[in-house]
């Protein structure tokens, strides 16, 4: 029964298939097969293209081959998607001239090498082209500038070099342009035109130098701009703020920008992510930063600022990530910081901050990662902080002047994995509640003034890998329960008897 049905379908299928085969279609199938046979199939983990065969009857029309995602009404291939197919080889043997109707082509996430064929410039109907995450070398063919219908161009994560061809700015319908992760140099600034549709632009991880390419100011629709990890120098251009009013995501991390943040930054009122870390920005952080009320991520870390954390930060109610580490700040922590109750990541480490943690910070109950190490902060780590910071995964208060006892509320940090309180002046006994921290991996309380005995509840810390109590004033012996700590590889509870002696002892 099944067999009869199968052969009926088979005959029907054959006659359809044959009547539809046109010379063009054969040319397309043959072009694909010729190319397939040049690929290094031995290196494929699973040979993805087994369906590509003229002897396979059901596979006879290339429209049904793996990766051929769509044919038009005359069975002419219009979409090829061979993303992540383990392809190893070049595109040199693939004759693109037989696919004039192609609208979509993806070869991303393979191991293709050699150059990007200039022949692609003939595919005048192409709307989508993704050659990302291969290892294409040499320059970007200028012919890609002929693809006037192109909306999405992704060449990211290859080894392309040379100038970005100015001809690419002919692509006036393109809204998504990703050339990140190559060795590309600045295009000819004069001949590179504005692009009126461009919305997303990734040029990060290349060799762009000198200034922010001025053509970027002629992209009125730009929402996303990533120029991180280049070698761009000079001041942050005021034009960036005044001409890109739709910008929501700005990433200039890890370049060599210098000078002050212009107050015109307030023009970027839609900005959600502002990442300016790892540059050479100086002056004070302008109060106006606090007027960007849609900010969710603010990274100014690793710059050369001085002066205060602006109190206007407290207006950023949507803020989730605030990174000011190592940026030359020398104020106290503004009370207003406690108004940013959506914060999950806060890093103020390696600055010259002084004074106590303001009480308002107890409201930061969403915090997951909090680092404020290597400052001159003082005062007590109050119980009302700990009882509210129950989402903390990492708490880093080391290298400060915190004093007073560790409150028993420390036991409420149920999710904590890294707890660093070392190099402070904490005193009193270690509360037994420390044994409640059932996710703890690393506990460092060294170089404090903690006294009395180690609580036996320490033995409950079955996930802990490292504990450091070095140079405190603990007395007594280790409780036998420490033998229950199954994961521990390092436990230092030695006292330093001679305060003057160097680290060798
Ligand atoms: C023939 O092509 C069909 C359809 O693509 C495929 O499912 C099948 O695995 C192929 N058979 C062989 C023997 O390659
Ligand atoms: C492609 O396969 C589908 C079923 O998967 C079938 O209905 C269709 O007729 C096939 N087309 C060609 C041209 O082989
Ligand atoms: C391209 O598609 C059109 C229909 O959209 C068709 O008439 C034409 O023959 C196709 N060209 C080729 C070379 O297959
Ligand atoms: C870059 O491409 C390589 C090779 O295809 C791939 O393994 C890697 O995951 C890609 N990286 C990114 C960030 O896409
Ligand atoms: C990419 O190709 C270049 C030149 O052949 C080679 O030096 C480099 O190691 C390759 N990179 C990867 C990630 O395979
Ligand atoms: C730059 O920042 C944007 C916006 O936050 C982000 O999506 C992108 O991944 C970042 N780029 C890199 C290279 O991390
Ligand atoms: C900030 O940097 C600019 C450019 O490097 C320099 O001219 C200026 O003197 C610096 N300002 C301060 C306050 O250091
Ligand atoms: C911070 O540094 C600036 C510039 O060096 C200085 O004028 C100011 O007095 C300092 N503020 C504090 C609180 O130390
Ligand atoms: C926190 O962010 C959400 C959106 O993610 C927003 O709806 C909420 O108002 C913010 N919280 C505060 C206190 O503004
Ligand atoms: C603890 O957090 C809650 C919710 O954010 C807040 O209402 C409360 O005032 C905080 N407690 C203290 C002592 O600030
Ligand atoms: C904050 O920055 C410091 C210095 O780079 C780093 O060591 C620490 O891990 C960061 N803290 C958190 C909580 O991410
Ligand atoms: C923790 O340790 C104490 C003392 O060793 C013990 O009495 C207690 O039952 C332990 N608690 C848990 C939850 O294991």
From TrEMBL:
It holds the Pfam family LRR_1. GO terms for biological process: anatomical structure morphogenesis; plant organ development. Keywords: Glycoprotein, Leucine-rich repeat, Membrane, Repeat, Signal, Transmembrane, Transmembrane helix. InterPro entries: Leu-rich_rpt (IPR001611), Leu-rich_rpt_typical-subtyp (IPR003591), LRR_dom_sf (IPR032675), LRR_R13L4/SHOC2-like (IPR055414). One of its GO terms (cellular component) is membrane. It is found in: Membrane. Its main location: membrane. Residues 218-398 form the Disease resistance R13L4/SHOC-2-like LRR domain. Residues 1-19 form the signal peptide. It is a single-pass membrane protein. This is Disease resistance R13L4/SHOC-2-like LRR domain-containing protein. It comes from Coptis chinensis.
């Amino acid at each position: 029964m099944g067999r009869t049905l199968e052969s009926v379908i088979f005959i029907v299928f054959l006659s359809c298939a044959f009547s539809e085969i046109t010379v063009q279609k054969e040319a397309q199938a043959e072009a694909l097969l010729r190319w397939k046979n040049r690929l290094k199939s031995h290196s494929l983990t699973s040979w993805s293209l087994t369906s590509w065969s003229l002897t396979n009857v059901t596979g006879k029309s290339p429209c049904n081959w793996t990766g051929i995602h769509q044919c038009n009404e005359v069975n002419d291939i219009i979409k090829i998607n061979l993303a992540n197919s383990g392809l190893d080889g070049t595109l040199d043997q693939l004759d693109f001239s037989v696919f004039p109707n192609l609208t979509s082509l993806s070869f991303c996430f393979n191991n293709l090498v050699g150059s990007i064929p200039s022949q692609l410039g003939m595919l005048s109907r192409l709307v989508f082209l993704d050659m990302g995450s291969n290892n294409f070398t040499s320059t970007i063919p200028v012919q890609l500038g002929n693809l006037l219908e192109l909306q999405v161009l992704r060449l990211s994560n290859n080894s392309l070099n040379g100038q970005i061809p100015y001809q690419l700015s002919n692509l006036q319908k393109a809204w998504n342009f990703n050339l990140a992760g190559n060795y590309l140099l600045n295009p000819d600034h004069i001949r590179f035109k504005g692009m009126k549709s461009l919305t997303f632009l990734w040029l990060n991880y290349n060799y762009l130098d000198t200034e922010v390419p001025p053509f970027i100011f002629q992209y009125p629709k730009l929402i996303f701009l990533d120029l991180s990890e280049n070698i761009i120098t000079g001041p942050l251009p005021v034009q960036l703020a005044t001409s890109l009013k739709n910008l929501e995501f700005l990433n200039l991390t890890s370049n060599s920008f210098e000078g002050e943040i212009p107050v015109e930054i307030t023009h970027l009122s839609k900005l959600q992510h502002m990442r300016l870390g790892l540059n050479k920005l100086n002056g004070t952080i302008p109060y106006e930063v606090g007027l960007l009320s849609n900010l969710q991520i603010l990274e100014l870390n690793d710059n050369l600022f001085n002066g205060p954390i602006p109190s206007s930060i407290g207006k950023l109610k949507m803020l989730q990530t605030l990174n000011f580490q190592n940026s030359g700040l020398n104020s106290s922590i503004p009370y207003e910081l406690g108004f940013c109750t959506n914060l999950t990541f806060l890093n103020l480490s390696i600055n010259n901050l002084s004074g106590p943690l303001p009480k308002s910070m107890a409201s930061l109950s969403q915090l997951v990662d909090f680092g404020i190490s290597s400052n001159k902060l003082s005062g007590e780590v109050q119980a009302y902080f700990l009882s509210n910071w129950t989402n903390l995964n990492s708490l880093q208060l080391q290298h400060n002047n915190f004093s007073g006892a560790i409150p028993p509320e420390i036991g409420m940090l149920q999710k904590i994995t890294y707890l660093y309180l070392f190099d402070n002046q904490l005193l009193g006994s270690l509360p037994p509640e420390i044994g409640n921290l059932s996710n703890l991996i690393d506990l460092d309380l060294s170089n404090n003034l903690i006294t009395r005995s180690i609580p036996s509840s320490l033995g409950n810390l079955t996930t802990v890998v490292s504990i450091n109590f070095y140079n405190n004033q603990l007395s007594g012996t280790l409780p036998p329960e420490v033998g229950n700590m199954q994961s521990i590889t390092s436990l230092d509870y030695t006292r330093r008897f001679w305060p003057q002696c160097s680290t060798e002892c």
